[in-house]
Amino acid sequence: MAAARLPLELQDMIIESILDLDRSYLSLASLVCRDWRNRSYERGFSSIYFSSLSIPVFASFLENPFSRPAIFTRVRRLRILGGGETFVWSTSLLGDLVKLVHHLAQIGRISGLTLDNLNWAVLDPGLAAMLTDFRVTEHLYMHRIYFAHLGQFSDFVARFRFLRAFDLQGVEFAARSGWNISLPLLTPYELGHCVSLNANNMTLSKRLTWYYPKCISLEQKRLSTVHGAQIFCDSSTGSDLLRNLGPLLTRLDIISESIAADENIASLDISTNFSIRHLHLASPARVLSMISWLPSLLARVKSLNLRTLHVSFAQSRQFHLDRSFLKHIAGILAEPQYQELEMIEFIASSARCGRLEDSAKTDIIRCIRSCLPSWDKRGVLAFTFH
């Protein structure tokens, strides 16, 4: 008589429940049976990261004929963590990293790649080419990366043909003069990659536009636009960037930490960002009614695709004083562009008044619900207290 087996969906639910209690149970779950081992490995190794500490461990897995197919075929997201601008990779460490990346590239299942705190100059020259061999990579995140020059960076990013999202933060170049380079001296090929990265396929058209801090002449701008580039100079408010992103932008977070920025935030032009689905407006150090730019920015939203709205503000034991401000916000939220909202979250920070008593939190929730009764009836209001 054949042994009875639980449906795979039920096994998944059981494993998820176990891991919700304690992630350390993952190794125990993998010992129950072959099915559980496969499910556990999928959860344990779908996201991995390589660092100076973990690379030798994963290299040993790579040499093991059992662990190699069990682990690396399940990896979908990879993070490579360096040691900063001055970190020196040893020959053995760099060699192991190259072997690991080469093996993952051969498998070809990495959809998300994160590079963090790396000095490009000390990496193996062949490593960059291997990383771009991740043919199905759709998400690229580069944080605190140090390049020798601008072309090295742009050539690397341009080789990812199927990117749908990228996040570039703290990308620096040793050759600072590259920021003020004389555009007419560049060849058309160099110009196109230096200023704008373009890729087209049947479903996606994307562009990364470079911003020069100093104004260039009309002739230089004309020459660059011949090759399809877009250049914005001295864009202090961010509106140029938002207009350039246009319908490509699906998520927007605006966080104000200083009253000095209020005027710039209030004047942001988001009229062309009609694909925004998630909007987060935050000023966690101020009570709600003191966020002067909030109504004007909400009134400027044009996206009919908006699904979630998050508003962050400082907690207050006198929240009832914000009632008239809330009613004004409620009037704006009655406009057509907000009618498809699935969640409106109010996030209260304890930056000003310390930890609130439960009764004060209840007062805040009651006040918001009374000012937005239609949204309360629809069950889309959510509240978070930090």
Pick out its properties.
about 375 residues, alpha/beta, 5-stranded parallel β-sheet, 16 helices, about 35% helix
Quick overview:
With 386 residues, this protein is an alpha/beta fold. The chain has helices at 8-21, 26-29, 34-44, 55-63, 67-72, 91-107, 125-131, 150-158, 188-195, 218-226, 239-245, 262-266, 294-299, 323-333, 358-371, 373-378; strands at residues 47-50, 77-81, 112-119, 139-147, 165-173, 196-200, 205-209, 211-212, 232-233, 251-255, 278-282, 308-314, 343-349, 381-385. A 5-stranded parallel β-sheet has the order 1-2-3-4-5.
Q: How many beta-strand runs?
A: 14
Q: Output the number of helix runs.
A: 16
- CA gyration radius, whole angstroms: 25 Å
- Oligomer status: single chain
Helix content: 25-40%
- Which structural class should the secondary elements be placed in? alpha/beta
N/C terminus separation: 56 Å
The order of strands across the largest sheet is 1-2-3-4-5
Largest sheet: 5 strands, parallel
Spans of 5+ residues with little confidence (pLDDT < 50)?
176-216, 224-236
- Strand content range: 15-25%
The residue-averaged pLDDT reads: 75
Shape: globular
Order of helices and strands: HHHEHHEHEHEHEHEEEHEHEHEHEHEHHE
Protein name: F-box domain-containing protein
